[in-house]
Amino acid sequence: MGSVRLDRPCGPRPGGGRIERSRGFHGRQGQPARGLFLRGDGPHLAAGFRLEPRARRRDDTAGHTHPEGRRRGDFVRILHVTPYFAPAWAYGGPPRSVHGLCRELVRRGHEVTVVTTDAMDALHRATPLREVLDGIDIFRYPNLSNELAWRRQLFLPRGTGKFLRERLPEFDLVHLHMYRTTQNVAVHRHASRYRIPYVFSARGTLPRIVRYQRAKAVFDVAVGRRLLMDASRCVALSQAEREQYEAMGVPSERIRTIFNGIDWESFQDLPPKGTFAGLHGLGGKRLVVYIGRIHSRKGLDHLLRAFTRVAGVDGDTTLVMAGPDEGDRRQLEGLARSLAISDRVTFPGFLTGRHRLALFVDASVVVYPAKHEFFGLVPFEALACGKPVVVADDSGCGEIVRDAQAGLVVRAEDASQLSGAILASLEKGPEISQMVERGRRFVAERLNWRAIADETEQAYRETVAAREDETPAS
After folding, report:
1. Helical H runs in 108-233?
2. Which residue intervals of the chain bear CATH 3.40.50.2000?
3. CA 460 – CA 451 distance, rounded (Å)
4. Rounded (10°) CA dihedral 401, 352, 450, 384
5. CB atoms within 10 A of CB 115
6. The whole model's pTM is what?
7. Which of these, 179, 172, 155, 164, lies nearest to 235 by C-alpha position?
8. Cα gap 253→247, rounded to integer Å
9. Per-10-residue mean pLDDT for the chain, 474 residues long?
């Protein structure tokens, strides 16, 4: 039987709704399903027909333009799959980055759907399970255990497989975020079945570090390597992460280095200076600030040892360590007592929104001593607020700060170097001021979401073009 064009609804279906022909696809009997555009609660086809991709026709886009002057054919339907999404800010930078990217893609006219879990923080689950946020269609599936999600990064969402079976053929491509997740395993299986290409962003999760190294090695051998090798494009956050991909066998020509973005506009309306200090009884103090997860791999024990020297030189300094506790706060508090600086260290907990911005505003210097950090948003957010930064060199974060000449970079786990850099930053000499100014320009020009989305769209275009080139004409 010849091809069947689905220009009209395919007939009645339970629960109402209809199916239209997805732009740039046609039907052929017995082929893998792809190209459905759903109006209702799930895909439904006339009996005996599935879909396969074809090259887009020139007249599919004729006469249709976007307010930015782009043609409709430039827009794609994108499925983002991530274990956590806005407002799961307790999970650090990835949910902020994925949300910022999706929001900018929607602004450009793409149809963006996110499949995620209900992970929120140690005690709460994200709600509602289904919503539209900033134009992004969000499906949250409940984890079997919130405790496993938070403590072990083991996300077991119920319902993701059904969504992929029924809805994956609607999308032009998938963008996977994070590495060792059950979601990725499911997407890989269904994407292979339906021949849907995907872009992969590890976001710092490739190395086997800290915990569960044996389990990570098993994942890599069983499914991880195939997941990476079958990706149309892999996105690295820095040269350090690019090298990690290459070490795991990904061909260099399939890797694109694209930085994380910063919502520059949100740093233009900052709280008044003194807001955070006033709320926490720290008026008149010079604040040495760390913002991030309270976790052993963040180098916080070395920061405490470095601050011991800082506190001895400058009696007006206080160390603020703000972030969600991942089980290491009690140990760090004990270390501060043993170093006789517990009265100079405060843990305000997890901060969001204006409260978090207020801490940036009141910081005298922001320190980010983490190892194996392939990007790290916090130093760049600090620079957007006009604050000097000190970062460790064993990370993509240090690589980028050094290349931009935007802050002081020290050897990881070297408390002596770290304390010297903090003291130099507190002096705020001309060299430090120039670094901060260069850093602000770098953030504004290179890390705004428009620039990041431009580069991401190029990776998407390469992905879709490569897939269509592989598809034989009907």
Report:
1. 146-152, 160-167, 182-194, 213-219, 225-229
2. 72-261+449-470, 265-446
3. 15
4. -40
5. 25
6. 0.82
7. 179
8. 14
9. 31 34 33 34 30 33 44 77 97 95 97 98 95 98 96 95 97 97 97 97 88 89 96 95 95 97 94 97 97 90 97 96 94 97 97 97 96 86 97 86 96 95 94 97 96 97 82 54
Burial 368-392 (b: 16+ CB within 10 A, else e): bbbbbbbbbbbbbbbbbbbbbbbbb
Per CATH, the homologous superfamily of domain 265-446 is Glycogen Phosphorylase B; (3.40.50.2000)
Residue 286's SS3 state is strand
Q: How many CA atoms lie within 13 A of 378 on its CB side?
A: 28
Backbone φ, ψ for residue 427 (5° rounding):
-70, -25
Contact (CB, 8 A) for 362 and 320: no
The CATH number of domain 72-261+449-470, selected from 3.40.50.2000, 3.40.80.10, 1.10.20.10, 3.30.530.20: 3.40.50.2000
Quote the DSSP letter at residue 417: H
The whole-angstrom separation of Cα 150 and Cα 320 is 24
Q: Are 447 and 259 a contacting pair, CB within 8 Å?
A: yes
